[in-house]
Each structure stands twice: as structure tokens, then as C-alpha cells.
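Quick check before the chapter quiz. The format below is the same one you will see on the exam, so make sure you can read both the input and the output lines.
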Amino acid sequence: MINLTIKQALEKLKKREISATELARAYLARIEKYGKQLNCYITNTPERALEDAAKSDERYANGKTLALDGMPIAMKDLFATRGIRTTAASHMLENFVPQYESTISQKFIDAGTVLLGKSNLDEFAMGTFSKTSYFGAPVSPWQIEKRLTAGGSSGGSTSAVASGLAIAATGTDTGGSIRFPCAITGLVGLKPTYGLCSRWGCVAFASSLDTPGPITRTVEDAALLLSVMAGHDDKDSTSAPNAKFESDGNLQPVLGDGKKLRIGIIKEFNNVQISSDMKNLFEKRIADLKSMGADIVEVSIPNVLDALAAYYIIAPAEASSNLARYDGMRYGLRVEGSDLYDTYKKTRAAGFGEEVQRRMLIGTAVLSSESYEVYFMQAARVRRMIADAFNKAFEQCDLIVCPSGASTALPLDSDLSPLEYYALDLFTVAMNLAGVPAVSVPCGLAQNGLPLGMQVVGRRFDDMRVLQLAKHIETAANIDNRPTVIMGE
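Here is the expected output.
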């Protein structure tokens, strides 16, 4: 059962070929078997899962089914879940149990999903390998003996879905935290248009960049999840008034049968060093799109290579502001000091990991009166230039394609400097700065047998067409990402 896609599982449930309880038990057994080895969950919720599944079975029996009824999912441990520990993978919130439900997790409850647990991530979503988690790094199920990274910050979610420990999962993407881990684990990861999915109740990292999105095995499943996640939320001031996305999972082709589409390739990425496997697979998929009738055009995003520098000024600045609330006074960890200032200092020193402290210090520095104009405002100007450049590029093309990353997954024990980790976001951060939708879709397997991904990028709120083109690429690549295949069973 764990090889079923969401679309297939829903069909079998509707035909009463399987029950939601049987499906939930299959995933719970899988978690029992591989959970500790993969470390993809921080908190497991087996009792809640069986309760949710029983309710789904009742609805199927009564003919009152919901959009994702009975689907066993993992919820990234940034989304507040009422009565269930929500840690953000930090010692600071290790024992925090919220008394409210995030908008996204509530939408999944309303859609009838089965909650398997809260998935692992980088601490406060700050990282690229999920190694900054207070609870240890999740492991990729691909060639598991090599202990490869499942990516970050949504590494627990991608590890769970790729290994069959969840049929799908939620993630958040601030600079590539859905797309990069999905690319290296053979999954589909969508960063929707900023404002399409509510951030309310999601632990904040960088408020103008954080974007909740789906992590699935297929493009069609991503469309089904986004249909549930999308929508305006009065509780979120950054929620778009026109936020809407609807799909039954049957994506209409945008190529073939005489359909024409202009697909852009970013000129500035041509000289960026990528692996020979990534280069060859990207060229193959471009050739496939040409054969389907696409017109390939070169477009320019002049400041796209400056996006990394701008991102690592803006994101830490917003993190510095957002994480100032963790002071040991109201909730979370508290380490008593000799006075108020000493309590603040000791609490944050104990509660935040090294990477979070580093980014908070950078953010505080760039927001200081001496640096604000020189660094933060300059980064904001570059951000505007990048957004304008994307708008201009979309006058020449309908969609843009580019790699999701430079190479396949690296070992978790890779000895990279902080700057080398940051550079892994080169292909993904610009889309967050511009607020445009981007999906990573598997484009093939490298010679070492590991998956690689490429992105489809569209205009704001053109999420549907982004997924439609991704479906073409997925079909052309035709990689086998079934959990039993990945785990060698």
C-alpha cells in the first residue's frame, strides 16, 4: 500500500478496496520499521492517526468523503498543532505544546487527512542539510547505507515521503527549503506563489520569504495538496486577497497537439558550475520539451547571481526580529539568570543552536544604524531589481526552467563551511525574493543512481501552468521513485 500515490489511494478508498485504517496501519508499521534509522520524525502520533483513520472510514461508509480523506501525511514541525508538541527542531521549543492550530494544519484536518506525526527539519528552518536540528539530522532513504542528506530545511518531510513513511508532507520554502530537498530525494516540491498559502500558526523564520507548500511523489499529488492548502486567510496579513487554487489532480497538458509554449532559460545560469549529470539531464529534458512543440528562448535576470547575497542579508535580518520573542519569559525554554538581562542571555545561549545564533547575529548587525542603509536597504533594492527582471523575462516567455541544484545528495558528514552550505541555495533563492511560484520535479537519475531535479518557474499566481509543465517533465524523465524501490525491498 505504501507505493500508492495519493490519487491511486483515493480511488481505492472510494471503491472500498482498502480502508483508511488499513492504510494508516501500513504507514505506522513502516514508521516502526524505519523511523529511528531515518530520523525523519520528531514526534510520532500513532493514536491520533488511528483516530483520524477511523473517522475517515465512517465518512467513506456514509458517502460524505472529504478532499483528502484517509491520506496519511507528515506535518513539518513548524506548523502549530493543537495539543501536539511543536518544536521547530529547537531546544528552545523542545517541550512547547500549542493550544491553537495553524491555518495549514487545520485545512488538512478539514480535508480528512490522517496525521502520522511532526517531521524533522533544520532548527527554525535555518539550514540546507537539516543538520542543525536539535534532534539530529534526518537521513535520505536513497542508498541509505551511505547516510546521505535528505536536504533542508524540509529534510524530515522529504525523507518520510521518499521512504514511504508518509504518503505526502508539508514543507516550507524560504530560500529553497522545499525544492532543494525534493530535488535530491526524487520528489516533487512546490514553492507556491507567496501569499497563496497562509503562514498563520507557522513558526516564522523570514516573514517576507516563508512559503508553505506540498511535498509529494507526483505532480498530480502536489496539485491535490495545493488545492487544500491554498486560500486567503484573514488572520495572515501577507495572505493574498485573490489566493485561490483548484485542481482535481488531472492536469491538462500545455504542450502537444499543436499547443505552443515559450520556455525561457536564464542566461546568467549558463556559466554556473554544475555536475555533468545535471547538465546532461537538463539538456535532455529541454530536448524533450522542444520535441513536444515548445519554443526555447534565452532570457536574462541580470542580478540573479546577486540573489544569494541579498537573501543572506534579508533573511537573517527578518530572523533576528522574529526570534527576538524567544526570551524565556512567556513560553519555551527558560534558564534563570541573576537578573533579566542575564536570563535573556543564558536562555538564548542554551536554547538556540550555532547556526541560528549566527544568523541572528548577522541579522542584528545588518539592521544596526551603521549598517542598515549599506547592507539591508541595498539588499532590498537588489530584491526589487530581481522581481522586476522576472516580470520583464515573462514578457518574452511563458515559463522558465532551470536546475534545482548543482549535483546529487552529499553525505551528511560532508565538511562544508557555512558559506559553502549557503551556496547550495544558488538556484532557488531568487524565486523567493521575487515571490513567484517554482516547482522542483525529478528530471532523471545521475550515473551514481541518485535523483536530480529541475525547476519550472512561472508568473505570480500562475501555479497551475507551472505544475502542468512539470507534469510533462515528470513523464519524460519517468524515474521510479516508489518507496519499495528506493529502499531496495
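If your answer matched, good. The longest strand covers residues 438-445.
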